[in-house]
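Hello support,

Our group uses your service weekly, and this is the first time we've seen a run hang past the timeout. The protein is SDR family oxidoreductase. I'm not sure whether the cause is the sequence or the server load. Input pasted verbatim:
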Amino acid sequence: MDINDSVALVTGANRGLGRAFAQRLLERGARKVYAAARRPETVDLPGVEVLPLDITDPASVRAAAEAAPDVSLLINNAGISTGTDLVTGSLDAVRHELETNMFGHLGMIREFAPALARNGGGAIVNVLSAMSWFGGKGANAYHLTKAAAWAMTNGVRLELAEQGTLVTAVHLGLADTDMAAGWPVDKIAPTDLAEAVLDGVEAGSAEVLADQWSRDVKSRLALTPEELNAAMDRALAALMAA
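Update from on-call engineer: The timeout came from a worker crash unrelated to the input. Re-ran successfully.
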């Protein structure tokens, strides 16, 4: 699809990657950009149409779909990381991450799919992570939710193919946002991530591996679990030492 003259909705558009997506969409000629956020008063980007949206609240998602019936590009960006482990961490925190990172995205897709069909098919972008493919102590709830969201993305891609909707999975390592502020390593700039994703959408790509980290992880998926864990331990140690 062509970004120019598209009508896009970006979730979590008040900061970080979401704000970068909204800004780059405007710069690339999108006719309208809905900037959706749980706290709409924090959206500070000129030129967007602000929408209140809590992706974990079905009524809020339904209201957003009713307010934005002209959407041709849905960018599911909103997400959380609670730093929770699966065995010893809070099960409520694990559920909260799942409700946001997987069910929240799926709820958006279910509500907006009819509008996308009416508007020519359009495209959906799900912002996932290289942690769709590996875990780590202190982040296994996040790994679980991103792995589930990856599977969900692959499923809805098959289900929406008949209506002509492109479904693009985006994987990245770390972006230079508040969520990754505690990691003293190289990170992809939000504007670079947004540019790569929008290029991928225009090219009709089902998957965007946005940085070298995500490409490296994807290339190791044929390893055994033991080999993958060892490889990721080495890669993380090298990253932190750089």
